[in-house]
Amino acid sequence: MSVSIDLTEFLRNPIHSGIQRVTAQICRNWPDGDLRPVHLAPQGHLAALPDELLPAIAHSFECPGGSWVERIQEIRDTPGWPGAEFSARDTLLVPELFYDPRRVAFFRRMDRTGLERCRFVVYDLLPLVYPQYFASWVPMDIVCAYFQMIRGVPHCAFISRSTQEDYCRRLRRSRETKGVVFRLGSDGLGPKPAPVASARPLKFTVVGRLEPWKNPSLILDAFEPLLRDVAGLQLHFLGPLGDHIEPSLAARLEVMAAHHPGLSHCPHPDDGTMRRHIDESRATIFVSVAEGFGLPPVESLWRGTPVIVSRGLPSLEGYGPAGLHVVEPLDAANLRSAVTAFFDDAYWRQKSQEAGGLDLPTWRSFTQELAQWCQPR
Amino acid sequence: MEPVIYGDLRCLQDPAYALRGIGHHTAAVLRGRGRSRCASWKLVGLVDDNLDALPAEFAALANDVSPSRNPSIPRSGAIFLDFSPMTHDPRFSLRFAANPDFLKAAVIYDFIPFDWPGYLPHVASRIDYLSKIARLRSFDLYLPISRYSAGRLAAILSISPSRIAVTGASVRSRLYDLAQVRRAAPPPPQNEHPYFFSLGGDDRRKNTETAVAAVRRLNDMHSRLIPLKVGDHGHGYKADLLRIAGHEEGGGFLEFRPGVDDEALVDLMAGATATICPSRIEGFSLPVVEAIACGSPVAASDCEAHSELLGQSGALFPATDSLALADILDSLLQCPERRPQLLREQAPIAEQFREPQVAARFWNAIADAMDARPGGPALRSARKPRLALLAPYPPQESGVALFTQKTVEAAARFFDVDVYTNAPRPLPPGGTFRDAGLIGRAALLKGRYDSIISVIGNSPFHTPIFELFEEYGGPCILHDSRLTHIYHFRLGPERFRDLAVKALGRPVTTDEIEIWLQDRDLPSLFVEPVIRKATPLIVHTRHFQSLLRRRYGVHAELTTFCPNMPFDEQEIGAAGRRAARERLGISPGVFLVSTFGFGEKGKGIDSCVIAAELLRAWNIPVELHIVGNAGRIESELVRLTGLYGVDDIVHWGNTFVSAQTYRDFMLASDAAVQLRSYGFGQASAALADCINAALPCVATSELAEAGDAPEFVRTVPYPISPLLVAEQLAAIWEGPRERTLWYDARRAYLSTHNFDFYIERLRQILELT
Questions:
Q1: Which one of B640, B716, B723 has the shortest CB-CB distance to A171?
Q2: Lowest mean pLDDT, pick from B263-272, B426-435, B699-708
């Protein structure tokens, strides 16, 4: 009995963000080292990759920019890896989202026995549920082919109850609840720091890719007068401009940054930079209206930094208000009020203490649950 | 309501005329309108986009400036003024010249090219000039600048004197002002350094030779230097004049003063013993009046225009008689009293040709002629307005053709309608209209229409309409909110790219254009040329109206979009629907979903197909029919239905769907899906038909909003998600499906979305009520 992990997308694009980050955490935290890497070879079959790939992935995350990425690419580009073999008790874990016709076709060709062996992780249905936030060029025929395939597979895990709901009630339009929910780890930026007593500067940080549904324009609207009027106020955006963002947002960000020294945008922060900004902030801001999970708030809470959030974020399901300031209704004025609330040291301190006291899942707990789920039944 | 004046201002755009006599006269007359009886009438300056832009100083003289020269004629009447009928392409004003409902007035300067040899050297130039003379017959009122020109007009074209009002030409006010200032200064002694002045010009007709010969004779007689100062002359003419003078340039009495400004001109004329105007022929002769206005007596040739101005024989001489001129000039030199005496005699002339006086004569003549129009607005309002529609028409397979047919049928109550179309004949019967022939200039030439409307859209059926509209403009019903495809089709890739570069003011790549042709990421609606020429621009949705205001700052008139396909409540009831399903062979248990209209990219057919797959997965017995010619996307449909495994439940055809089949699907369907992957406030004929049939529908939100859709049209956002489409269809499947539920909403919609309402709006917009 063994578990194989399909790393096709990770190998194609071994970056450190998004779903690749989840894949890498699985590779790092898999118990007992009993995980076999595979990928979909150009010839159309699953090829077994050498075991050394998994530590290479783990190291590439621990030491970014090192030679590990090159080694990963070497392994990827080496032709002739043998076909992966599966016994009846073996499992194939597919922890990636793929809008890739070749990969979709591979799983569609798979017979029922083969699919029974597969464990798919489903992240979100955002392009289907919130199309208005996506660019018009999204190839919906390809996106939907993935969802059509995933709709019919026997075993799915979801990263939030919200995604599970969308999958069951909307994509399958069924009353039956299918699959399991495993919450992503909160400790991706390192271990929990000791509580800090001294007051922080008036600094706020927005972590994550800038996409329309994450409301970057609203954040700028809220901060524009504050940056003008409040001495020492800082707002930092950490993350790239997303594929669906209007070009005008980039221009606005640039213009505002030129006028306000407290405003900055770092499109490609490493983990250390993110950690530093979060740890120095009075609060992070995450006012997204459409998420499959929404990792940055829980990573912030893990670090003991409160979060200004929109209501209903899947990653905060079941946590109550501890460490959070919910902006409701979500508009610029209310967001501005939330920010100014954190100017008050006492309020910030209270929220920080709440954040530090939360019991949040880790990548290890996530992976252990996943590994357990992958056991043959 | 007061009349509208359309003035052809090309002479003010054209540098060859704008700063010369014609341009000056036109501008002066326009400047004087504000104090005339026509001051409150609207003046629209007509311009030609192919000429230089109309300078702002001239544009300010009109209430509006437009390149459109196909206006509707308001019931209050309209006037066409041709300020320079003999100089520019007369096809520019076909609409006006041919239409008896305009009061057409032409300014007549002269017929010198006809009367004086050398101006029309080629057969082509003679034909062109004679055709322009012939065209003058179509005018109602003539405004010559002199009695002489009026006489020639009457003689050449047998025009009745009752249709002629002599206005004169005006001297620019600045010369009077400068002269006044100069007169206030102490007068220079005239006899200390006497000289003569002749403005001349490079045209040999100006006859400066006679002036030079006469002054040479004076110099010989008096054995002293008596200068003759002359204006600008070309190289050859100058050499000839120096030969006549008998000296080199700078070596004798003949002095050239090229490029003099107004100050210098006033000085030159006022200081001269006399100004000589020796022209062989003139239509008016501004230099005569200018000189007098500047305080210089004039000696002029005895051509008719000069005789008309100066009257007295003592200052006139035969144009070729330098001895006679020398005698006149000598008398001025010899007798100190002669100059002031002559000036006193001539001085009243200048007062008659100030700008306000000339403008008053001009506009009084126009106002009198309008007052005297037989019947006037009252007569016109007694008959139905005459309308020409340039449009696609059935049997052309186009939604706009069908829409036009319905428009024409409804228009019969209020209009006499002629349809110009390139549709194959015979045109289908119905309504009261006349098949006026193919699309072309005939509509403009026939001249009987109160309004000639171009119906413009984004398909090749509109190509001949574009050809005409781009030249003449006029009332325009714009069916499509973007014209990317028609311009790309008409202009070809290279010229389309040029158009895009001009519209966007930046370089454009072929790849970008490919994306635009899929209606994606359009940086422009490519309606700019149409907007510029449309008077008025008529659109069908408030959304598009707002978009045009936002993007282009233009006001478009709004009327509502109407369903093409009529249904009554009995027909769309349960029995009628059952019968339609039987005709189509649709099983009773099937959830029949249809999408109507031409199958093309941009109408979200892929989302419909994927939604059908989802519905089936949800155990809904769906069948999807694409009701319209899907030939253009057939290969894509084959691929998609194969990919999603729905080739058994998705149906389409690749020919134009008959009206009966279209109706049957409207009746038989349980739901319709009308999607657009582009917005821009575009109306949808199919969606309007669905609403008229009380057929529950799923539409993109902007399409529904643009079409004023009632509540039984469910909406999905753009970009389109097949899941959301499927969810809305499932809700229709799961809910009550009797169409009677929607009758009230349907009636409310139809109260403003019907062709009678549409025609009423057209009447208001075109001011033909």
A1: B723
A2: B426-435
Give the predicted TM-score (pTM) of the model. Answer: 0.81
Kindly identify which residue of chain B lies nearest to residue A167, measuring between CA atoms. B723
Are the beta carbons of B640 and A141 separated by less than 8 Å? yes
Is residue B746 within 8 Å of residue B726, measured between CB atoms?
Answer: no
Cβ of A138 within 8 Å of Cβ of B719? The answer is yes
- The values of phi and psi at residue B101, to 5°, are -85, -10
Measured between alpha carbons, how far apart are the two ends of chain A, in Å? 11
Within an 8 Å CB–CB cutoff, is residue B521 touching chain A?
yes
Please report whether residue B344 resides in a domain. Answer: yes
Strands B650-653 vs B622-629: parallel, antiparallel or unpaired: parallel
Q: Are residues B82 and B214 in the same domain?
A: no
Same domain, B410 and B524: yes
Please indicate, yes or no, whether residues B616 and B590 belong to a single structural domain of this protein.
yes
Residue A235: which of A287, A194, A185 has the closest Cα? A287
Same domain, yes or no: B534 and B630: no
Span A3-185+363-374: which CATH code? 3.40.50
The number of domains in chain B is 4
Pairing of strands B78-82, B102-108: parallel
pLDDT at B363: 98
Structural domain range at position B73 = 4-163
CB contact under 8 A, B722 and A140: yes
Given a cut of 70, whether residue B688 has pLDDT beyond it is yes
Q: Which amino acid is at A359?
A: D
Q: Within this chain, do residues B177 and B144 fall inside the same structural domain, yes or no?
A: no
Domain A203-356 adopts which CATH fold? Rossmann fold (3.40.50)
Q: Among partner residues A131, A140, A170, which is closest to B606 by beta-carbon distance? A: A140
DSSP for residue A175: S
Q: Residue A132 and residue B643: Cβ atoms within 8 Å?
A: no
Q: Does B323 lie at the interface with A, CB-CB under 8 angstroms?
A: no
The tens digit of pLDDT for each residue in B574-617 reads 999 999 999 999 999 999 999 999 888 789 999 999 999 999 99
pLDDT tens for each residue of B205-236: 999 999 999 999 999 998 889 999 999 899 99
Give the per-residue pLDDT at B72: 87
In this prediction, residue B130 carries a pLDDT of 96
What is the pLDDT at residue B679? 75
User: Across the interface, do A151 and B617 touch by the CB < 8 Å criterion?
Assistant: yes
| In chain A, residues 212-231 whose CB comes closer than 8 Å to chain B | none
Enumerate residue ranges in chain A where pLDDT < 50: none
Contact yes or no for A127 and B520 at CB 8 A: no
